[in-house]
Amino acid sequence: MNVKKQLLSLKAYDPGKSIDNVKKELGLTKIVNLASNENPYGCSSKVSEAIQSIAHYAHYPDSRAEDLRRTLAGRLNVKESQLLFSSGLDEMIQMISRCLLTAETNVVMADFTFPQFRHHAVIENTEIKAVPLKEGRHDLEHMQQVVDENTSLVWICNPNNPTGTYSSERELRSFLEKVPNETLVVLDEAYYEYVTAEDFPDAMKLMREYENLLVLRTFSKGYGLAAFRIGYAIGQEKLLEKLDIGRLPFNTSKFAQIAAQAAIDDPSFVEECVVKNKEALQQFYLFFNKYRIPYYPSQGNFVYIEPEMDNDLVFHFLLQKGYIVRPIKNGIRITIGKKEENAEIIALMKEILVDGAAIKRTS
Ligand SMILES: Cc1ncc(COP(=O)(O)O)c(C=O)c1O
Question: Is the dihedral angle over the CA atoms 33, 38, 39, 44 positive or is it negative?
Answer without folding.
Answer: negative
